[in-house]
Specification:
The chain is α/β, with parallel strands linked by helices. The chain has 2 domains: 1-44; 46-151, Oxidized Rhodanese, domain 1. The protein has helices at 7-19, 21-44, 51-60, 71-76, 87-91, 116-127, 139-145, and strands at 47-49, 64-67, 83-84, 105-109, 132-136. It comes from Anaerobiospirillum thomasii. Pfam families: Rhodanese.
């Protein structure tokens, strides 16, 4: 018999939850939050491009890199010809610098592979009618780790 179906285990579990309602509620909340986040990731259909694929899209399909990091980090070094547009600007609909790229590849570049602003920015751009939005897998950290060129020219 599995321990999870053992009547003694279920009784102990029920007693634990009744004695520790705040802690159990907190764990349940965290679990639900993680499930919701994972569901959003799976249903958003935002693809990640490797560096090679992204560079190919920019060079051969009139694509554009959109660096969503802060102006300060952008000024320290960015991909040549990248447009700096923060998540806050995208959220506010201030996308005039890339408006004409709605049918071209738009690759959002965050700080690293865990940058949620790149993912959320890509979701917003899709909602705003951009057809070929992806994120750069690994972000600028991966770009730096591959010793690829950066510039601080605007």
């Amino acid at each position: 018999m599995s321990e999870l179906t053992n009547p003694d285990f279920l009784t102990q579990l029920q007693e634990f939850f009744s004695r520790h309602t705040m802690m159990a509620g907190g764990w349940i909340t965290v679990l639900l939050f993680l499930i919701i986040v994972q569901f959003r990731l799976m249903t958003a259909r935002i693809k990640k491009d490797t560096i090679g694929v992204a560079v190919n899209k920019v060079n051969h399909s009139e694509g554009v890199f959109v660096d969503i990091r802060s102006q300060e980090n952008f000024n320290k070094g960015h991909i040549a010809n990248a447009v700096n547009m923060t998540f806050a600007e995208i959220k506010a609909g201030q996308i005039n610098r890339i408006e004409r790229k709605k049918d071209s590849p738009v690759i959002l570049v965050g700080k690293d592979k865990y940058d949620t602003e790149a993912f959320n920015g890509a979701r917003l751009l899709k909602k705003l009618g951009f057809n070929q939005v992806t994120t750069l897998d690994g972000g600028m950290l991966e770009w730096y780790n591959n010793n690829l060129p950066v510039t601080n020219k605007k």
